[in-house]
User: Which sequence fits this backbone?
């Protein structure tokens, strides 16, 4: 079995601000950029993303772009989605459809998302982002703000918000 450390080295992954490890593997340089309210963006970008036993949580964040997540290797990853109207949805990305796991998960732009490694050493996914990812289009979740917006999800919000550095 390939380990998390072997994936990090083989794919050249770096720590991600939301948790886990990542590396951009594609951006549509060969196409004209598209105009968005926040500026010009690639039509599509893609990353590898890895959650590990040492970094098992993708903390609450919101992207403006639509994102397709694809499970590739390792253990399942559980996603929690909070929609603008207050709905909460849970999905598990993994390799076992008999357990209700999905190979692909679509998350529309404007939906808050947190994820965690369900068990084991690691879970490796990729993401396709359209319009292409730009840090200006991502908001990291702040506990107080999310609690005001989604008070009925207080336990989940507290569990998956990134803690302020001391």
Assistant:
């Amino acid at each position: 079995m390939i380990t998390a450390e072997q994936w990090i080295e083989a794919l050249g992954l770096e720590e991600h601000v939301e948790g886990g490890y990542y590396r951009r593997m594609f951006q549509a340089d060969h196409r004209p950029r598209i105009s968005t309210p926040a500026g010009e963006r690639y039509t599509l970008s893609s990353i590898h993303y890895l959650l590990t036993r040492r970094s098992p949580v993708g903390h609450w964040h919101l992207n403006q772009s639509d994102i397709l997540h694809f499970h590739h290797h390792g253990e399942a990853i559980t996603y929690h989605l909070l929609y603008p109207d207050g709905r909460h949805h849970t999905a598990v990305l993994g390799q076992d459809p008999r357990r209700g796991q999905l190979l692909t998960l679509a998350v529309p732009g404007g939906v808050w998302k947190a994820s965690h490694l369900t068990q084991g050493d690691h879970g490796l996914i990729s993401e396709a982002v359209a319009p292409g990812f730009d840090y200006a289009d991502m908001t990291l979740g702040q506990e107080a703000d999310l609690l005001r917006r989604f008070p009925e999800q207080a336990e989940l919000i507290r569990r998956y918000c990134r803690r302020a550095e001391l």
